[in-house]
Amino acid sequence: MEAMERYFKCLFVDFIDGGKYSGEVSEDTVERTQCALGHNRHIESAFGFVDRLHTHSPNMIVPRRLAKLMISKNHTTRWLLSKPVEEQRAIMKIARSSLAEIRSEHVESRKKLAEEILVRAHEREKERVLKKGNVAVKRVKAIEAVASAGIVTDSVGISSLLHSLSAPARLKALCAQIRFRERALRQEAPEERIFVLTNKGSPLSENELRRRLELLIEDDLKGLVVTRSLPSTLIGCWIRRWIDDRSEDGKVVSAETKGPFSTISIKFPSSLLSFPLVRFEEELENGYFELLDESL
């Protein structure tokens, strides 16, 4: 009730005590508002009339809908019938003479509307493709940034990575590891703003970046980093593949890395599957594949 009271006070602030329309009303205000109705039944009736036309005559052109609405709600027919027959004919003749022009304007407006819709659709598609392309480019760059040094999976790996680097290079290496987890592995953020690597435009300290990377490593429960950084360890592992309600077990027969990308091959009784390791990790996450070796 308190919220409703605040809402109505805000809505009718000009009309309650102290408002500019409260108290004695001037003659000018009375004259300007004497035709205003105290309800909205007429406009709601017009909306209902147009809605019915849309339902029962969906192909009716807009000018015809407007004409039927005005004739129905403005009592135009009653006014026309009150005129002499000759004057009625003259009025109807003038009205009919503009039909061709009205139809032509309607066709032209429909054509312009269709062109605008098409242009906007193309713009949205360009925006979508550009956004998708930008995401892919950032993902590839994130992979390339860690390709030479490898992907760290524990605190010891972080120390080894930073051991022989200068201070600026250490910051860059830590940022690259975090960006890889954000853009390539698409790891969920265990902490709010963990992937924001600046503070009011200034880079974060080395200790803070290291803390964030350690938190991401600790939070990574899917084992995706291990499989991506050490694909050769998968060779000989047994993988279970789920197909609807049944499953079959297969063995990893090869896992090789070419540049920043890795490929895995699994031999199942029914077929031999070869695909990028990225896809394998996604299918692991989705539950389509299951690792049977607990060591991973």
From TrEMBL:
Keyword presence, Hydrolase: yes
InterPro entries: Oligoribonuclease
Keywords carried by this UniProt record: Hydrolase, Nuclease
Top-level division of the source organism's lineage: Eukaryota
GO MF annotation list: 3'-5'-RNA exonuclease activity
UniProt protein name: Uncharacterized protein
Protein species of origin: Pristionchus pacificus
Lineage of source species: Eukaryota, Metazoa, Ecdysozoa, Nematoda, Chromadorea
